[in-house]
Amino acid sequence: MNIKKIRKDFPILNKNKLIYLDSAATSLTPNNVLNKMVEYYKEYRSNINRGMYEISQKATAEYEKARITVQDFINAKHSSEIIVTKNSTEGINIIANGINWNKEDNIITTSLEHHSNYLPWLRIKDQYNIDLKIVNSDNNGNLDINDFENKISKHTKIVSITHLSNVTGKVIPIKEIINIAHDNGAMVMIDGAQSVPHIGIDVNDLNCDFLVFSAHKMCSPTGIGILFIKKELQEEISPLIIGGGAVKWVNNYNYKLLTNTNKFEAGTPPIAQLIGLDKAIKYLKSIGLQNIENHEKALIQKVYNNLSQNKNIELYGGDLKNRIGIISFNIKGVNPHDLALSLNISSNICIRSGFLCAEPLIRNTFNASNGVIRLSTYLYNNERDIDIFLKNISELIN
Ligand SMILES: Cc1ncc(COP(=O)(O)O)c(C=O)c1O
User: Fold this and answer.
1) How much is the average pLDDT of 159-184?
2) Phi/psi zone of residue 144: left (φ > 0), alpha (ψ -120 to 50 degrees), beta?
3) pTM, entire model
4) Is 208 a catalytic residue?
Protein backbone atom coordinates (compact mmCIF):
# COMPACT_ATOMS: atom_id res chain seq x y z
CA MET A 1 0.00 0.00 0.00
CA ASN A 2 1.27 3.42 -0.92
CA ILE A 3 0.10 5.37 2.13
CA LYS A 4 1.64 8.61 0.93
CA LYS A 5 -0.45 8.41 -2.24
CA ILE A 6 -3.57 7.32 -0.36
CA ARG A 7 -3.29 10.27 2.03
CA LYS A 8 -3.34 12.66 -0.92
CA ASP A 9 -6.81 11.31 -1.77
CA PHE A 10 -8.23 12.69 1.50
CA PRO A 11 -8.38 16.49 1.35
CA ILE A 12 -9.25 16.91 5.03
CA LEU A 13 -5.91 15.37 6.04
CA ASN A 14 -3.94 17.82 3.96
CA LYS A 15 -5.96 20.88 4.84
CA ASN A 16 -6.03 20.51 8.61
CA LYS A 17 -2.90 18.46 9.37
CA LEU A 18 -5.10 16.12 11.33
CA ILE A 19 -3.97 13.05 13.17
CA TYR A 20 -7.23 11.24 12.72
CA LEU A 21 -7.48 8.18 14.94
CA ASP A 22 -11.26 7.89 15.18
CA SER A 23 -12.29 5.94 12.08
CA ALA A 24 -14.37 3.51 14.13
CA ALA A 25 -16.69 6.48 14.79
CA THR A 26 -16.71 7.66 11.20
CA SER A 27 -14.21 7.57 8.37
CA LEU A 28 -12.84 10.31 6.14
CA THR A 29 -13.97 10.73 2.52
CA PRO A 30 -11.67 10.59 -0.51
CA ASN A 31 -11.81 13.00 -3.44
CA ASN A 32 -13.27 10.54 -5.92
CA VAL A 33 -16.31 9.92 -3.67
CA LEU A 34 -16.77 13.66 -3.13
CA ASN A 35 -16.43 14.31 -6.87
CA LYS A 36 -18.97 11.63 -7.75
CA MET A 37 -21.55 13.22 -5.45
CA VAL A 38 -20.83 16.65 -6.90
CA GLU A 39 -21.30 15.13 -10.37
CA TYR A 40 -24.80 13.99 -9.33
CA TYR A 41 -25.69 17.42 -7.93
CA LYS A 42 -24.28 19.30 -10.93
CA GLU A 43 -25.35 17.03 -13.77
CA TYR A 44 -28.39 14.88 -13.02
CA ARG A 45 -29.77 16.01 -9.67
CA SER A 46 -33.37 14.72 -9.65
CA ASN A 47 -35.50 12.17 -7.84
CA ILE A 48 -35.33 8.48 -8.72
CA ASN A 49 -38.01 6.00 -9.82
CA ARG A 50 -40.43 8.84 -10.63
CA GLY A 51 -39.41 10.94 -13.59
CA MET A 52 -39.80 9.97 -17.24
CA TYR A 53 -37.26 12.67 -18.12
CA GLU A 54 -33.64 11.97 -18.93
CA ILE A 55 -31.81 13.15 -15.81
CA SER A 56 -34.21 11.25 -13.57
CA GLN A 57 -33.59 8.11 -15.62
CA LYS A 58 -29.86 8.70 -15.29
CA ALA A 59 -30.09 9.20 -11.50
CA THR A 60 -32.19 6.02 -11.19
CA ALA A 61 -29.67 4.06 -13.25
CA GLU A 62 -26.74 5.31 -11.12
CA TYR A 63 -28.64 4.48 -7.93
CA GLU A 64 -29.50 0.95 -9.05
CA LYS A 65 -25.97 0.39 -10.34
CA ALA A 66 -24.73 1.25 -6.86
CA ARG A 67 -27.11 -1.28 -5.32
CA ILE A 68 -25.48 -3.96 -7.48
CA THR A 69 -22.01 -2.81 -6.37
CA VAL A 70 -23.12 -3.29 -2.75
CA GLN A 71 -24.64 -6.68 -3.62
CA ASP A 72 -21.31 -7.82 -5.12
CA PHE A 73 -19.33 -6.41 -2.20
CA ILE A 74 -21.15 -8.52 0.40
CA ASN A 75 -21.80 -11.38 -2.06
CA ALA A 76 -25.59 -11.31 -1.75
CA LYS A 77 -27.52 -13.47 -4.22
CA HIS A 78 -30.02 -10.80 -5.31
CA SER A 79 -29.80 -7.02 -5.60
CA SER A 80 -33.30 -6.86 -4.05
CA GLU A 81 -31.72 -8.09 -0.80
CA ILE A 82 -29.91 -4.75 -0.48
CA ILE A 83 -32.01 -2.14 1.32
CA VAL A 84 -30.84 1.44 1.66
CA THR A 85 -31.21 2.89 5.16
CA LYS A 86 -29.85 5.86 7.08
CA ASN A 87 -27.32 3.86 9.13
CA SER A 88 -26.81 0.55 10.99
CA THR A 89 -29.04 1.72 13.84
CA GLU A 90 -31.99 2.17 11.51
CA GLY A 91 -31.45 -1.27 9.97
CA ILE A 92 -31.51 -2.99 13.38
CA ASN A 93 -34.66 -1.06 14.32
CA ILE A 94 -36.37 -2.10 11.07
CA ILE A 95 -35.80 -5.76 11.87
CA ALA A 96 -36.63 -5.51 15.59
CA ASN A 97 -39.92 -3.76 14.86
CA GLY A 98 -40.70 -5.69 11.69
CA ILE A 99 -40.74 -9.18 13.20
CA ASN A 100 -44.08 -10.69 14.05
CA TRP A 101 -43.45 -11.43 17.77
CA ASN A 102 -45.18 -14.11 19.85
CA LYS A 103 -45.07 -13.98 23.62
CA GLU A 104 -43.12 -17.25 23.96
CA ASP A 105 -40.29 -15.95 21.70
CA ASN A 106 -36.95 -14.92 23.09
CA ILE A 107 -34.12 -12.78 21.71
CA ILE A 108 -30.39 -13.36 22.18
CA THR A 109 -27.74 -10.70 22.03
CA THR A 110 -24.38 -10.34 23.81
CA SER A 111 -22.64 -8.19 26.39
CA LEU A 112 -20.28 -6.94 23.65
CA GLU A 113 -22.82 -4.95 21.70
CA HIS A 114 -22.99 -1.31 20.68
CA HIS A 115 -26.08 0.44 22.15
CA SER A 116 -27.63 0.34 18.67
CA ASN A 117 -27.74 -3.44 18.94
CA TYR A 118 -29.13 -3.34 22.51
CA LEU A 119 -31.76 -0.67 22.76
CA PRO A 120 -34.04 -1.90 19.95
CA TRP A 121 -34.14 -5.35 21.59
CA LEU A 122 -34.66 -3.92 25.10
CA ARG A 123 -37.66 -2.04 23.79
CA ILE A 124 -39.09 -5.15 22.10
CA LYS A 125 -38.60 -7.06 25.37
CA ASP A 126 -40.68 -4.46 27.23
CA GLN A 127 -43.27 -3.96 24.49
CA TYR A 128 -44.07 -7.64 24.01
CA ASN A 129 -43.05 -8.88 27.45
CA ILE A 130 -40.65 -11.40 25.98
CA ASP A 131 -37.36 -12.70 27.23
CA LEU A 132 -34.04 -11.06 26.24
CA LYS A 133 -30.98 -13.20 26.93
CA ILE A 134 -27.49 -11.70 27.01
CA VAL A 135 -24.53 -13.96 26.24
CA ASN A 136 -21.53 -13.16 28.44
CA SER A 137 -17.93 -12.56 27.54
CA ASP A 138 -14.81 -13.04 29.65
CA ASN A 139 -12.82 -10.11 31.09
CA ASN A 140 -11.06 -9.63 27.75
CA GLY A 141 -14.24 -9.41 25.69
CA ASN A 142 -14.06 -12.98 24.30
CA LEU A 143 -17.53 -14.34 23.72
CA ASP A 144 -18.48 -17.38 25.81
CA ILE A 145 -19.79 -19.85 23.22
CA ASN A 146 -20.85 -22.31 25.95
CA ASP A 147 -23.00 -19.61 27.49
CA PHE A 148 -24.56 -19.03 24.06
CA GLU A 149 -25.27 -22.75 23.65
CA ASN A 150 -26.86 -22.84 27.10
CA LYS A 151 -29.09 -19.85 26.39
CA ILE A 152 -30.34 -20.68 22.91
CA SER A 153 -33.51 -22.76 22.58
CA LYS A 154 -36.26 -23.57 20.11
CA HIS A 155 -38.00 -20.41 21.38
CA THR A 156 -35.18 -18.14 20.23
CA LYS A 157 -36.58 -16.03 17.41
CA ILE A 158 -33.44 -14.09 16.61
CA VAL A 159 -29.78 -13.85 17.59
CA SER A 160 -28.38 -10.37 17.02
CA ILE A 161 -24.62 -10.07 17.32
CA THR A 162 -21.72 -7.89 16.29
CA HIS A 163 -19.12 -9.20 13.86
CA LEU A 164 -16.34 -6.98 15.23
CA SER A 165 -16.38 -5.19 18.57
CA ASN A 166 -16.19 -1.41 18.42
CA VAL A 167 -14.34 -1.44 21.76
CA THR A 168 -11.69 -4.13 21.28
CA GLY A 169 -11.57 -4.63 17.50
CA LYS A 170 -12.02 -8.35 18.18
CA VAL A 171 -13.54 -10.48 15.41
CA ILE A 172 -16.38 -12.64 16.74
CA PRO A 173 -16.73 -16.24 15.43
CA ILE A 174 -20.08 -15.51 13.79
CA LYS A 175 -20.09 -18.50 11.46
CA GLU A 176 -20.18 -20.83 14.47
CA ILE A 177 -22.91 -18.68 16.06
CA ILE A 178 -25.00 -18.69 12.86
CA ASN A 179 -24.77 -22.48 12.53
CA ILE A 180 -25.82 -23.06 16.15
CA ALA A 181 -28.66 -20.52 15.81
CA HIS A 182 -29.98 -22.10 12.61
CA ASP A 183 -29.83 -25.57 14.18
CA ASN A 184 -32.25 -24.16 16.76
CA GLY A 185 -34.49 -22.54 14.16
CA ALA A 186 -33.45 -18.97 15.08
CA MET A 187 -32.78 -16.16 12.62
CA VAL A 188 -29.48 -14.26 12.83
CA MET A 189 -28.78 -10.54 12.48
CA ILE A 190 -25.14 -9.52 12.04
CA ASP A 191 -24.07 -6.04 13.07
CA GLY A 192 -21.34 -5.41 10.53
CA ALA A 193 -20.84 -1.71 11.33
CA GLN A 194 -17.20 -2.29 12.26
CA SER A 195 -16.39 -5.39 10.21
CA VAL A 196 -17.66 -4.59 6.72
CA PRO A 197 -15.39 -1.52 6.25
CA HIS A 198 -12.27 -3.36 7.44
CA ILE A 199 -12.52 -7.09 6.73
CA GLY A 200 -15.60 -7.28 4.50
CA ILE A 201 -18.25 -9.98 4.73
CA ASP A 202 -19.68 -12.77 2.59
CA VAL A 203 -23.38 -13.15 3.42
CA ASN A 204 -23.72 -16.10 1.08
CA ASP A 205 -20.97 -18.07 2.76
CA LEU A 206 -22.11 -17.10 6.27
CA ASN A 207 -25.77 -17.70 5.44
CA CYS A 208 -26.86 -14.93 7.84
CA ASP A 209 -30.46 -13.73 7.63
CA PHE A 210 -29.89 -10.01 8.18
CA LEU A 211 -26.85 -7.75 8.07
CA VAL A 212 -26.47 -4.05 8.77
CA PHE A 213 -23.56 -1.72 8.12
CA SER A 214 -22.91 2.01 7.92
CA ALA A 215 -21.45 3.47 4.75
CA HIS A 216 -20.05 6.48 6.61
CA LYS A 217 -17.53 4.18 8.29
CA MET A 218 -16.15 3.11 4.90
CA CYS A 219 -15.10 6.31 3.12
CA SER A 220 -18.65 7.13 2.04
CA PRO A 221 -20.86 10.09 2.87
CA THR A 222 -22.88 10.30 6.06
CA GLY A 223 -26.61 9.53 6.09
CA ILE A 224 -26.50 6.11 4.45
CA GLY A 225 -26.42 2.56 5.69
CA ILE A 226 -27.29 -0.82 4.25
CA LEU A 227 -29.65 -3.49 5.50
CA PHE A 228 -29.40 -6.93 3.91
CA ILE A 229 -32.51 -9.08 4.29
CA LYS A 230 -32.43 -12.60 2.88
CA LYS A 231 -34.97 -12.80 0.06
CA GLU A 232 -36.99 -15.61 1.65
CA LEU A 233 -37.59 -13.50 4.77
CA GLN A 234 -38.63 -10.22 3.18
CA GLU A 235 -42.28 -11.15 3.03
CA GLU A 236 -42.59 -11.71 6.79
CA ILE A 237 -40.82 -8.50 7.89
CA SER A 238 -43.09 -5.45 8.12
CA PRO A 239 -41.53 -2.13 7.09
CA LEU A 240 -40.86 0.45 9.81
CA ILE A 241 -42.08 3.39 7.75
CA ILE A 242 -44.41 3.42 4.78
CA GLY A 243 -45.41 6.05 2.25
CA GLY A 244 -44.51 7.21 -1.24
CA GLY A 245 -42.55 4.76 -3.34
CA ALA A 246 -43.56 1.76 -1.21
CA VAL A 247 -47.08 1.12 -2.50
CA LYS A 248 -48.55 -0.85 -5.37
CA TRP A 249 -51.93 0.89 -5.19
CA VAL A 250 -53.81 3.19 -2.82
CA ASN A 251 -57.48 4.15 -2.60
CA ASN A 252 -59.25 6.28 -0.02
CA TYR A 253 -59.18 3.72 2.76
CA ASN A 254 -56.77 1.01 1.67
CA TYR A 255 -53.40 0.36 0.18
CA LYS A 256 -51.23 -2.51 -0.98
CA LEU A 257 -47.50 -2.37 -0.36
CA LEU A 258 -44.95 -3.29 -2.98
CA THR A 259 -42.87 -6.33 -2.19
CA ASN A 260 -39.14 -6.72 -1.62
CA THR A 261 -36.80 -3.73 -1.56
CA ASN A 262 -39.34 -1.01 -2.39
CA LYS A 263 -41.43 -1.90 0.63
CA PHE A 264 -38.54 -0.90 2.92
CA GLU A 265 -37.45 2.26 1.10
CA ALA A 266 -40.47 4.57 1.42
CA GLY A 267 -39.81 8.23 0.67
CA THR A 268 -36.91 9.76 -1.21
CA PRO A 269 -33.79 7.77 -0.33
CA PRO A 270 -30.23 9.12 0.13
CA ILE A 271 -29.51 9.26 -3.61
CA ALA A 272 -26.22 11.14 -3.72
CA GLN A 273 -25.00 9.08 -0.77
CA LEU A 274 -25.63 5.71 -2.41
CA ILE A 275 -23.94 6.92 -5.57
CA GLY A 276 -21.03 7.99 -3.33
CA LEU A 277 -20.97 4.57 -1.64
CA ASP A 278 -20.60 2.93 -5.06
CA LYS A 279 -17.37 4.90 -5.62
CA ALA A 280 -16.14 4.24 -2.07
CA ILE A 281 -16.53 0.48 -2.48
CA LYS A 282 -14.63 0.59 -5.77
CA TYR A 283 -11.93 2.68 -4.12
CA LEU A 284 -11.53 0.27 -1.17
CA LYS A 285 -11.49 -2.70 -3.54
CA SER A 286 -8.81 -1.09 -5.68
CA ILE A 287 -6.58 -0.88 -2.60
CA GLY A 288 -7.63 -4.32 -1.35
CA LEU A 289 -9.37 -5.06 1.96
CA GLN A 290 -6.67 -7.59 2.85
CA ASN A 291 -3.98 -4.94 2.39
CA ILE A 292 -5.96 -2.52 4.54
CA GLU A 293 -6.40 -5.14 7.25
CA ASN A 294 -2.66 -5.96 7.25
CA HIS A 295 -1.79 -2.29 7.41
CA GLU A 296 -4.13 -1.66 10.34
CA LYS A 297 -2.82 -4.71 12.18
CA ALA A 298 0.76 -3.45 11.85
CA LEU A 299 -0.17 -0.01 13.22
CA ILE A 300 -2.08 -1.48 16.12
CA GLN A 301 0.78 -3.86 16.90
CA LYS A 302 3.06 -0.85 17.26
CA VAL A 303 0.62 0.86 19.64
CA TYR A 304 0.14 -2.32 21.64
CA ASN A 305 3.88 -3.03 21.94
CA ASN A 306 4.45 0.44 23.31
CA LEU A 307 1.44 0.83 25.63
CA SER A 308 1.66 -2.68 27.08
CA GLN A 309 5.16 -1.86 28.42
CA ASN A 310 3.84 1.00 30.48
CA LYS A 311 2.62 0.12 33.97
CA ASN A 312 0.54 3.32 34.13
CA ILE A 313 -1.64 2.09 31.30
CA GLU A 314 -4.54 -0.30 31.47
CA LEU A 315 -5.29 -1.99 28.14
CA TYR A 316 -8.62 -3.68 27.44
CA GLY A 317 -9.25 -6.73 25.29
CA GLY A 318 -6.21 -8.91 26.11
CA ASP A 319 -3.61 -9.78 23.46
CA LEU A 320 -3.94 -8.89 19.77
CA LYS A 321 -5.20 -12.28 18.55
CA ASN A 322 -8.07 -11.81 16.04
CA ARG A 323 -8.12 -8.06 16.55
CA ILE A 324 -8.17 -5.36 13.89
CA GLY A 325 -7.65 -1.64 13.93
CA ILE A 326 -8.90 -0.75 17.42
CA ILE A 327 -7.29 -0.42 20.82
CA SER A 328 -8.99 0.85 24.00
CA PHE A 329 -7.15 1.81 27.16
CA ASN A 330 -6.88 4.14 30.14
CA ILE A 331 -4.03 5.93 31.81
CA LYS A 332 -4.57 5.02 35.44
CA GLY A 333 -6.06 7.93 37.39
CA VAL A 334 -6.68 10.09 34.29
CA ASN A 335 -10.17 10.87 33.05
CA PRO A 336 -10.35 9.70 29.39
CA HIS A 337 -12.13 12.87 28.26
CA ASP A 338 -9.33 15.01 29.75
CA LEU A 339 -6.80 12.88 27.91
CA ALA A 340 -8.64 13.12 24.58
CA LEU A 341 -8.94 16.89 24.91
CA SER A 342 -5.32 17.26 25.83
CA LEU A 343 -4.17 15.17 22.83
CA ASN A 344 -6.28 17.35 20.55
CA ILE A 345 -4.94 20.60 21.96
CA SER A 346 -1.31 19.54 21.88
CA SER A 347 -1.10 17.76 18.51
CA ASN A 348 -4.45 17.95 16.68
CA ILE A 349 -5.08 14.29 17.47
CA CYS A 350 -8.72 13.20 17.01
CA ILE A 351 -9.49 10.28 19.25
CA ARG A 352 -12.62 8.96 20.97
CA SER A 353 -13.19 8.87 24.74
CA GLY A 354 -16.00 7.71 27.01
CA PHE A 355 -18.30 4.70 26.85
CA LEU A 356 -18.20 4.35 23.04
CA CYS A 357 -21.93 3.49 23.02
CA ALA A 358 -20.99 0.22 24.71
CA GLU A 359 -21.60 1.06 28.33
CA PRO A 360 -22.49 -2.47 29.52
CA LEU A 361 -19.15 -3.85 28.25
CA ILE A 362 -17.01 -0.94 29.38
CA ARG A 363 -18.63 -0.38 32.77
CA ASN A 364 -19.49 -3.93 33.79
CA THR A 365 -16.93 -6.14 32.07
CA PHE A 366 -13.94 -3.79 31.91
CA ASN A 367 -14.85 -2.00 35.12
CA ALA A 368 -13.88 1.36 33.62
CA SER A 369 -16.25 3.68 35.45
CA ASN A 370 -15.30 6.81 33.47
CA GLY A 371 -15.07 5.10 30.10
CA VAL A 372 -11.95 4.55 28.01
CA ILE A 373 -9.81 6.10 25.29
CA ARG A 374 -10.18 4.40 21.90
CA LEU A 375 -7.67 4.64 19.09
CA SER A 376 -8.92 3.34 15.74
CA THR A 377 -7.16 3.22 12.40
CA TYR A 378 -7.92 3.00 8.69
CA LEU A 379 -6.12 2.93 5.38
CA TYR A 380 -4.97 6.57 5.54
CA ASN A 381 -3.15 6.38 8.89
CA ASN A 382 0.62 6.22 8.78
CA GLU A 383 3.40 5.43 11.23
CA ARG A 384 3.88 9.13 11.88
CA ASP A 385 0.32 9.34 13.27
CA ILE A 386 1.15 6.54 15.67
CA ASP A 387 4.55 7.95 16.64
CA ILE A 388 3.09 11.36 17.46
CA PHE A 389 0.29 9.76 19.44
CA LEU A 390 2.71 7.57 21.44
CA LYS A 391 5.09 10.47 22.04
CA ASN A 392 2.20 12.53 23.44
CA ILE A 393 1.09 9.70 25.72
CA SER A 394 4.56 9.20 27.07
CA GLU A 395 5.06 12.95 27.67
CA LEU A 396 1.70 13.23 29.41
CA ILE A 397 2.50 10.33 31.72
CA ASN A 398 5.89 11.86 32.55
C1 LIG B 1 -20.62 -2.11 16.31
C2 LIG B 1 -21.49 -0.95 15.96
N3 LIG B 1 -22.78 -1.15 15.73
C4 LIG B 1 -23.63 -0.16 15.40
C5 LIG B 1 -23.15 1.12 15.28
C6 LIG B 1 -24.12 2.21 14.91
O7 LIG B 1 -23.76 2.77 13.69
P8 LIG B 1 -24.55 4.08 13.17
O9 LIG B 1 -24.30 5.14 14.18
O10 LIG B 1 -23.92 4.37 11.86
O11 LIG B 1 -25.97 3.69 13.09
C12 LIG B 1 -21.82 1.41 15.52
C13 LIG B 1 -21.30 2.78 15.44
O14 LIG B 1 -20.27 3.12 15.95
C15 LIG B 1 -20.96 0.34 15.86
O16 LIG B 1 -19.66 0.54 16.11
Assistant:
1) 98
2) beta
3) 0.97
4) no
